[in-house]
Amino acid sequence: MKSVILPPALSKLLPAALHASCIGALVRKHEPLFLTGQKPQWMFFVVQGEVTLERAGLQGEPVIIQRTRQGFVSEASLKVSRYHCDAVAITDTHIIKVPALALAEAMDQDPAFAARWIGMLNTEVRRLRLHLERLSMKSVQDRLVHLIQTEGQDGHYAVPSGLKTLAAELGVTHEALYRTIASLQKAGQLTKPEGMLVLQPAVKTRAH
Q1: Within 13 A of 4's CA, how many CA atoms are on the CB side?
Q2: Contact at 8 Å (CB) between 149 and 198?
Q3: Most buried of the four, 84, 88, 149, 207, by CB within 10 Å?
Q4: Residue 18: phi, psi to the nearest 5?
Q5: Given CA atoms 48, 119, 136, 32 in this order, what sign does their dihedral have?
Q6: Which of 124, 126, 120, 125 is nearest to 107 (CA)?
Q7: How far apart are CA 113 and CA 98, in angstroms?
Q8: Which DSSP string corresponds to the chain?
Q9: CA angle, corner 108, sides to 104 and 111, nearest 5?
Q10: From 37-46, 57-66, 117-126, the region with the lowest mean pLDDT
């Protein structure tokens, strides 16, 4: 098995003994990493690209419950017997596969690693709380601005997978998102260079 060079964040997180067990892979756009009901065999770390966790909504439409552009996908599934959602690559995505059994054993045997893993989970919990806060907002504009402000960098938010995927993450129709973006552009409050949304400094979310 060919060794893989781990990204710094993953190399620092994992015990050194696990590094040689990691495998690099390319998942093509629209291909699943795993499906609901499957037994976890690997933990997947996104190096570059984008993966979403999805469940079926009431009308059968996909509902995005997590989006990962860098880091572990479905961290909480490490010790579950079956996956409770689907993981799908939204773009061609480079991943690192870490054997789930070996990772779980390391958690039990290495207190320092367990502490690092818990710290990572706490970071993800904070991100999910922001996601829930965003979904409680009534207007599409407030949700969009909140997303850019909390998950973007200096008002810049990358949308490599397109606006339809972004609309699903915001819990709105893509038509409503298009109208909102057009309105903000017309008002000079948002620009839309290739694959990016750029918020102007004066734009703020309204109280809700």
Answers
A1: 21
A2: no
A3: 88
A4: -90, -15
A5: positive
A6: 120
A7: 14
A8: ----PPPHHHHHHS-GGGGGG-EEEEE-TT-EEE-TTPPP-EEEEEEES-EEEEEE-TTS-EEEEEEESSEEESGGGTT-SS-SSEEEESS-EEEEEEEHHHHHHHHHH-HHHHHHHHHHHHHHHHHHHHHHHHHT-SSHHHHHHHHHHHHSBTTEEE-TT-HHHHHHHHTS-HHHHHHHHHHHHHTTSEE--TTEEEE-TT--PPP-
A9: 120
A10: 57-66
Residue 155's Cβ-side half-sphere holds a number of Cα atoms within 13 Å equal to: 12
Task: Show the tokens assigned to 44.
Answer: 């997947």
Confidence of residue 208 (pLDDT cuts 50, 70, 90): very low
pLDDT value at position 111? Answer: 95
**Rounded Cα–Cα distance for residues 103 and 97 (Å):** 11
Using one digit for the tens of pLDDT, what is the confidence trace for 1-60?
456 889 999 999 999 999 999 999 999 999 999 999 999 999 999 999 999 998 876 666
Rounded to the nearest angstrom, the gap between the alpha carbon of residue 40 and the centroid of all alpha carbons in its chain is: 18
pLDDT of residue 207: 44
The single-letter code of the amino acid at 102 is A
Q: What average pLDDT score do residues 63-86 get?
A: 85
Question: Could you tell me the sign of the dihedral formed by the alpha carbons of 42, 107, 70, 149, in that order?
Answer: positive
